[in-house]
Amino acid sequence: MVEQPTAQQHNRDLDLAAVHRGEVRDLTDVDLAGADLAGAKLAGCDLSRANLTGANLAGADLTGAIVRANLRGADLTGAQLSNADFRGADCRGALLLDVAGVQVSFAGGFLAGATLSKSTLTLSDFRGTDLRGANLVEAMLQQADLSNANLSGADLLRANLEESSLVGAVGAGANLSQANLLCATLDERAIAGAVLDGACLTGTGLER
After folding, report:
1. Contact at 8 Å (CB) between 134 and 155?
2. Residue pLDDT tens, the chain, 208 long
């Protein structure tokens, strides 16, 4: 019986230069933990179940990519994420500083302790996402869907949540100071126990 190569054996043969150039489209199940993929052209790639723990993806183009992967502690600073699929991804402790994208889906994902400050993620999907303790300072989240997300202890100082949905979200201990919640859809649960100093609640029905 011929022994089949393991995923780890296959990954040793993976040409990272070709990955950088965007020549490898199928990256499912690969082990790229700690890999240097800064600036990589990964638009449209399938990274389902990939191990990207601690990987450097700063400045990478992940437009339209499937990134339902392990990204714990990964660095995605400045990455392009429009229409990327991070549903269910483990991004705990990841660095997503200054990422940009529209209609990015993090639904059901794990972003506890992640840094998303100064990110631009308009029209994005965070339904049911674990954002406990995440840094979302000055994040641009207009028209985003954060329904049923867990924002406990998250820092949303000066975040822009205009016309976003936070129905059913848990905001206990969250910092929403000076946040823009103009015409956002939310309920008392979303702001119960949250710090709202200087926040704009106009059009929410929960003006204080």
Report:
1. yes
2. 323 334 443 455 688 999 999 999 999 999 999 999 999 999 999 999 999 999 999 999 999 999 999 999 999 999 999 999 999 999 999 999 999 999 999 999 999 999 999 999 999 999 999 999 999 999 999 999 999 999 999 999 999 999 999 999 999 999 999 999 999 999 888 888 999 999 999 999 876 5
* Burial of 41 from C-beta contacts in 10 A (0-12 / 13-18 / 19+): middle
Residue pair 152/129 in contact by the 8 Å Cβ criterion:
no
**Length reported for the chain:** 208
Which residue(s) pair with 70 in the sheet? Answer: 51, 90
| Cα–Cα distance, 152 to 171 (Å, whole number) | 5
Which candidate, 181, 175, 179, 177, places its Cα nearest to that of 203? Answer: 181
End-to-end CA distance of the chain: 72
Separation of alpha carbons 81 and 120, rounded Å: 10
* Amino acid (one-letter) located at 79: A
Beta bridge partners of 36: 56
Gap between the Cα atoms of 148 and 65, Å rounded? 25
Distance in angstroms (rounded) separating the CA atoms of residues 154 and 159: 11
Coil/strand/helix, residue 19 = helix
